[in-house]
Known about the structure:
Layout: E1 10-13, H1 15-24, H2 30-38, E2 42-45, H3 47-59, H4 69-79, E3 81-82, H5 103-110, E4 115-117, H6 121-124, H7 127-132, E5 136-138
Parallel strand pairs: 1-2, 1-4, 2-3, 4-5
Amino acid sequence: MTAFRFDPPAVVLDTNVVLDWLVFGNPGVRPIVQAIQDGRLHWVATVAMRGELDEVLRRGLPREQGTPPENIDLHWKAWAHIVTDPPPPSLAAPLRCTDPDDQKFIDLALHGADWLFSRDRAVLRLARRAAVRGLRIVTPEAWPGA
Length: 146
């Protein structure tokens, strides 16, 4: 297995950030979304990440001003670049998240992303240790490109 590298920089979006974009239309993620759509950032994801999004959507969420449900799949297919050979859990990165459901985002990001955007406290607590490894973990609003 080899790490991926992209030009433009690769980013991982956790499920809450994807929901902010595609369901809630949260203005805090607009700079990141615009950068992805303009080709300044390269959004990478895995099948497991899509599965988590689908599970959250199946449970049902209040809809505000975001994308209609039938268009979420279109946006995902248009902008998410699926990493078909993600790091296996058994070879997990040296950063362990206290929430096992979030480990897949950390592992993929450490595999070659420049940024991991999250609102999850368990993920954000790893930011300092991740920075030593070249990964920046921040909330969407803290992204310097915002």
